[in-house]
Structures are given as C-alpha cells and as structure tokens.
C-alpha cells in the first residue's frame, strides 16, 4: 500500500459503514474527517452560517456542499503544510452524498496529489436488507449510541457502552426509512457509478458478519 491512503466509505443506511470506518481508522492510524463533526463545528460559529446550519440540521435537511468543502479544504491544506511523518492518511465519513461532491472530491485528490492513493469503498447491501436492518435497529436512551441489527448486536439487551435501555428510534418509521433509501438511489448511486468509471471504487459484500466485511476490505485495498 502506498502511504498516505485516502478512503471514503459509501453505502446505504444500515450497511455498517460507521463500524468499518472506526475499524479502518484504528488499524491504519488514519485521520478521521466526518461530515457530522464538521456540521457540529459550523453550528457553533457565531455568524449566519452557524445559525442557519442549526436550523438545517434540526429540520433534517442536507447541508450545502460548499460549506462542508470549505471546512475540509481548510483541514487538508493544514495537513499538507504540516508534512507530518506520522501522517498515515485520511478517512472521509459521510461524503460525498451527490455527484457534484464526488467530482469535487476527485479534483481535490488531484490537487493534494493523493489521487493515486484514493479509494472509495462501497459497503454494499441491498435495499431490502437495509430496510430490514433499519426497522429493527435500536438506540441507547442514555448515550444515544446506535445499535445496528447485525451479528451479536441483535441479542444485546443493554447498551454495551453505558448500560442504558435500548429502544427503537422514533424517526425510524417505514416512511422515513424509505425516504432515506430513495435519497441513496437518486443521489448516491450516481456517485458510486462515477467512482467506478474513474477506477476508484472497491465493492464489498456488506451482507456478511462485521469481521468478514472488514477482512474483505483489507484484502482489497
Ligand atoms: Zn448507552
């Protein structure tokens, strides 16, 4: 493997990419750049952006591309300038969510001279599988941890982090889940096709136990 490595994880909600992101970050000592963290940071800014992002998040809407990219372009510029010998690479979580973001991400990879080391990892599960997992997944009432409906997690009786009670999420209704899955088919599938055409895509079977998914990723990157 060439160093540094830059990865982004794609997949339908419920595919377990959060877990795989954690495993990959730990295994290779990657720098984690998550859209969720970026949005939370913007929402703390005392200006128009901060105010409006707070509203956007609370209404469950998507944040605009340029704001997210502005944040991570700042971060990437600092990383490149530091030229840290311990820098192992980056893992993007939650981006890109639409075609224009994928195109911008490729442009950025070329700009930062990481395009030869860039891989988009699709943790592939069918729409039916995603629907089944999302209707059955639970959340800790106390710490908010999401408990996926896969492997040993299915039998978990209490939160494995804090011991809190596990409940089905209010917003995991069949209608809301179908909307989320529609959004993937309409917006993220073009991203997957774009990365495939450009030679960046690695496709992983997400319908197997967590360890097997991770093994398959390691064998293909
Ligand atoms: Zn908990």
Q: H/E order of the elements?
A: EHEHHHEHEHEEEHEH
Query: How large is the share of residues in beta strands?
Result: 15-25%
Query: Spatial order of the strands in the main sheet?
Result: 2-3-1-4-8
**Can you count the helices?**
8
User: Can you list the ligands bound to this structure?
Assistant: zinc ion
Question: What is the C-alpha radius of gyration, as a whole number of Å?
Answer: 18 Å
SSE arrangement:
Blueprint lengths: L4 E6 L6 H12 L2 E4 H9 L4 H11 L6 H18 L6 E5 L5 H13 L6 E7 L2 H10 L1 E3 L5 E2 L18 E3 L5 H24 L3 E5 L4 H11 L1
Parallel strand pairs: 1-3, 1-4, 2-3, 4-8
Antiparallel strand pairs: 5-6, 5-7
Zinc ion (ZN) binds next to loops.
Task: Name its key features.
binds zinc ion; 221 residues; alpha/beta; 8 helices; globular; three-stranded antiparallel sheet; 16% strand
What does this structure look like?
With 221 residues, the chain is α/β, with parallel strands linked by helices. Helix content is 49%, strand content 16%. It is built from eight helices and eight strands. It has helices spanning 17-28, 35-43, 48-58, 65-82, 99-111, 127-136, 174-197, 210-220, and strands spanning 5-10, 31-34, 89-93, 118-124, 138-140, 146-147, 166-168, 201-205. The strands form two sheets. The protein has a five-stranded parallel sheet, with helices on both faces. Strands 6-5-7 form a three-stranded antiparallel sheet, with no helix packed on it. The radius of gyration is 18 Å and the shape is globular. It binds zinc ion. Zinc ion is lined by residues 140, 142-143, 145, 159, 161-162, 164.
